[in-house]
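Need a sequence for this fold. Nothing fancy.
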């Protein structure tokens, strides 16, 4: 069975972070391992608090997984400090981990900062150059490029600037932008593509979509698919996950990661 690794924070509400990544891996038929970088107290409405794990604990988790598992692809999510980013980059580089998907998590939907100001440079100089693909949303792409993004053309310019940092490919996610509802911009192999949903976009805000999208790309890369194919399939998957969001919590609901199965499919 193919294996993938998520290096991210834990979401106590179950909709984002490690929890969303492992659900997504499993939905794609990939076994998921995890390295927890932070513990958050959050639900569908807000992030109330977050605590970083010590870097030696993060390193120990990484080395334990990589000593035992054949990881076909890995992704990073919440890496809140420069020290954590440096630790993760050092281990991944030393172990020659390939197919790295960098989701530059910076802020929650409720506005809680998940990346310290002094860590943005470490992210740009250490992890982004190692990435097979980077998947920023508009806010994250703006911070990485120090430029406003107010159009699809701005998204394309941002993708080019992030690629210039060393990433082999970049997906700038349109999300709920009024000028690009659910339209993403992909830069790969020097070519720009606009990725549009294959069904009408849903305007409802769903928790953990960035984590889920990047985890889906990671899973497809672990399965050995070409990058463009992996991203296109991840786009179709996240569109369906959003459409199938269950009625859970009082804020932004989590995605419906297993939209294709239900209780009736289990006869145990």
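Here you go.
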């Amino acid at each position: 069975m193919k294996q993938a690794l998520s290096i991210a924070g834990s979401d106590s509400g179950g909709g984002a972070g490690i929890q969303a990544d492992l659900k997504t891996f499993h939905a794609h038929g990939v076994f998921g391992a995890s390295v927890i970088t932070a513990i958050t107290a959050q639900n569908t409405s807000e992030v109330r608090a977050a605590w970083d794990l010590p870097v030696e604990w993060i390193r120990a988790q990484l080395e334990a997984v990589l000593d035992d598992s054949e990881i076909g692809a890995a992704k990073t999510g919440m890496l809140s400090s420069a020290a954590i980013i440096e630790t993760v980059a050092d281990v991944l580089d030393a172990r020659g981990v390939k197919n790295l998907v960098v989701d530059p998590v910076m802020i929650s939907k409720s506005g809680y900062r998940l990346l310290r100001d002094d860590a943005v440079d470490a992210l740009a100089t250490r992890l982004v150059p190692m990435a097979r693909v980077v998947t920023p949303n508009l806010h994250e792409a703006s911070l990485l490029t120090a430029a406003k993004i107010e159009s699809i053309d701005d998204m394309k310019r941002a993708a080019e600037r992030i690629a210039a940092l060393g990433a082999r490919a970049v997906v700038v996610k349109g999300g709920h932008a009024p000028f690009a509802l659910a339209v993403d911009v992909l830069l790969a192999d020097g070519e720009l593509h606009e990725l549009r949903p294959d069904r009408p976009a849903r305007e409802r805000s769903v928790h953990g979509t960035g984590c889920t999208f990047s985890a889906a790309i990671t899973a497809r890369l672990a399965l050995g698919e070409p990058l463009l194919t992996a991203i296109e399939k991840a786009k179709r998957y996240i569109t369906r996950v959003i459409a199938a969001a269950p009625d859970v919590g009082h804020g932004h609901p989590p995605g419906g990661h297993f939209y294709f199965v239900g209780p009736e499919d289990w006869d145990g």
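For context: The chain has eight helices and nine strands.
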